[in-house]
């Protein structure tokens, strides 16, 4: 027993030493694992801090540079997808007129602008008639925009020229606004009231008068559907037939058409200027009911060529020549009717030819002049038409226009116009017109 106890006492210190070594090894391992965990935690914290800084930087960048707003147009202002523009002009006219065949009544449109078909004939020569008015004043609204992939534009235009007001010149000289143009365009299509496609506006003379060389000019505004592609345009336009009674000289507005008027135009622009050729085909129709009822129709057609030719560095020559059968209401403000009735009730289309020539000379950047001749001749069948029917008209005018500031014109124009009937009676008007006009 004593031996065994002695051996146990000798082995105990060795076993204790082994246990201490193992414990220290485990502690060392735990410290190593702890250090590794701390390193991983620190790395994760650094990454999270960097991500947070990136988020802050992105937020600050967005706040500092918001999306740029759509820039405002140079003229007009934006409403949704459209740019709205407002414009027009104010014009005041002074006219002193001498009529060889009697003065037109006060308020007659001939006293405001040149209507060749209204020149008095057969009356007594009176003294000079003086008129002041501002009725040519005009205003318009237009929009331009993009809806999806489509270009859409509109225009509404009015003036005070043709409708009288509710008073007279004694007190307030009122005038009522009247619709001139109202249309919408969608890509190549136009719908609404616009100048006829049979007309070329680019060649109209530069005149003081509202309609200028009217007897020789294609001139009409009406509702239409038009398609334009490059230099070519085609349109279906509002029909209307004006008829002269058999052996008469008055005008019947038939309003019996069942087919629209068809117009087509081809225009070119070249270094020397621009030119166009236009065609018109239309139905002429007159229908009545009751005793002696009439139901007659025929075809009308017309051609018109126009040009604006550069002369030198600044001048230009403007020309138009139009002719055909049954196109009276399109030319010269309906100087001639479209058709005349036979005794049987059948319609005969009236033939006419009309045109003008106008030369514009630029004296300086602020001064210009225009010399214009215009005329129309009607080929009436005298066996079925009254002798008081219009046979021909012509006019000549010259002006001098000063532009003291941009968009402002002050000018004077001297005009002489003449109208002749089939009977040989004639009348003329000589007019001095002075005007001031400012566009905005």
Structure explained in plain terms:
The chain is built from one helix and 22 strands. The strands form two sheets. Strands 2-4-5-6-7-8-9-12-13-14-15-18-19-20-21-22 form a 16-stranded antiparallel β-barrel. The chain has a four-stranded mixed beta sheet with strand order 11-10-16-17, with no helix packed on it. The chain is mainly beta and 440 residues long. Residues 1-14 and 49-70 have low confidence and may be disordered. It has two domains: 24-64; 88-132 and 199-439, Porin.
Please outline the helices and strands:
Blueprint lengths: L1 H63 L12 E3 L2 E18 L29 E5 L4 E10 L2 E10 L18 E9 L2 E7 L25 E9 L2 E6 L4 E3 L7 E2 L7 E10 L2 E15 L7 E17 L3 E11 L13 E3 L5 E3 L1 E14 L2 E13 L10 E13 L5 E14 L4 E14 L1
Parallel strand pairs: 10-16
Antiparallel strand pairs: 1-2, 2-3, 2-4, 2-22, 4-5, 5-6, 6-7, 7-8, 8-9, 9-12, 10-11, 12-13, 13-14, 14-15, 15-18, 16-17, 18-19, 19-20, 20-21, 21-22
Features:
16-stranded antiparallel β-barrel, 440 residues, mainly beta, elongated, 22 strands, 1 helix, Porin, disordered N terminus
Distance between the termini: 133 Å
Main beta-sheet strand count, sense and barrel state: 16 strands, antiparallel, barrel
Strand percent estimate: over 45%
Which CATH architecture of the largest domain would you pick?
A: Beta Barrel
Poorly predicted regions are: 1-14, 49-70
Number of separate domains: 2
What is the number of beta strands?
22
Shape from CA axes? elongated
- The helix-strand sequence is HEEEEEEEEEEEEEEEEEEEEEE
Estimated helix fraction = 10-25%
Structural class: mainly beta
CATH domain class of the largest domain: Mainly Beta
């Amino acid at each position: 027993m004593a031996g065994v106890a002695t051996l146990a006492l000798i082995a105990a210190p060795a076993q204790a030493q082994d246990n201490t070594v193992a414990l220290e090894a485990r502690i060392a391992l735990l410290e190593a694992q702890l250090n590794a965990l701390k390193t991983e935690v620190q790395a994760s914290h650094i990454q999270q801090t960097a991500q947070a800084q990136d988020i802050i930087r992105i937020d600050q960048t967005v706040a500092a540079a918001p999306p740029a707003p759509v820039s405002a147009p140079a003229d007009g202002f934006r409403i949704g997808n459209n740019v709205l523009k407002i414009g027009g002009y104010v014009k005041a006219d002074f006219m002193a007129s001498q009529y060889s065949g009697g003065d037109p009544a006060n308020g007659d449109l001939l006293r405001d602008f040149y209507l060749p078909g209204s020149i008095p004939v057969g009356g007594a020569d009176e003294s000079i008639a003086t008129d002041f008015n501002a009725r040519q004043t005009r205003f318009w609204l237009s929009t331009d925009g993009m809806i999806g992939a489509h270009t859409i534009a509109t225009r509404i235009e009015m003036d005070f020229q043709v409708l009288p007001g509710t008073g007279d010149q004694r007190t307030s000289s009122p005038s009522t606004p009247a619709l001139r143009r109202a249309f919408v365009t969608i890509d190549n299509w136009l719908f609404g009231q616009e100048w006829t496609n049979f007309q070329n506006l680019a060649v109209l003379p530069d005149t003081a008068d509202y309609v200028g060389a009217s007897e020789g000019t294609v001139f009409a505004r009406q509702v239409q559907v038009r398609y334009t592609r490059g230099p070519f345009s085609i349109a279906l336009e509002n029909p209307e037939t004006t008829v002269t009674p058999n052996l008469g000289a008055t005008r019947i507005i038939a309003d019996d058409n069942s087919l629209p008027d068809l117009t087509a135009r081809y225009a070119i622009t070249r270094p020397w200027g621009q030119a166009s050729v236009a065609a018109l085909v239309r139905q002429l129709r007159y229908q009545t009911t009751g005793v002696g009822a009439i139901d007659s129709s025929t075809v009308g057609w017309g051609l018109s060529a126009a040009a604006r030719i550069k002369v030198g560095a600044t001048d230009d020559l403007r020309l138009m020549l139009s002719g055909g059968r049954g196109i009276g209401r399109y030319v010269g403000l309906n100087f001639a009717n479209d058709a005349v009735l036979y005794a049987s009730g059948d319609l005969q289309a009236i033939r006419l030819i009309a045109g003008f020539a106008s030369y514009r000379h630029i004296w300086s950047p602020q001064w210009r002049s225009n010399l214009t001749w215009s005329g129309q001749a009607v080929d009436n069948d005298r066996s079925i038409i009254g002798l008081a029917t219009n046979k021909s008209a012509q006019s000549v005018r010259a002006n001098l226009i000063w532009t003291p500031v941009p968009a402002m014109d002050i000018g004077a124009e001297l005009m002489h116009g003449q109208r002749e009937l089939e009977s040989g009676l004639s009348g003329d008007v000589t007019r001095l017109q002075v005007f001031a006009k400012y566009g905005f």
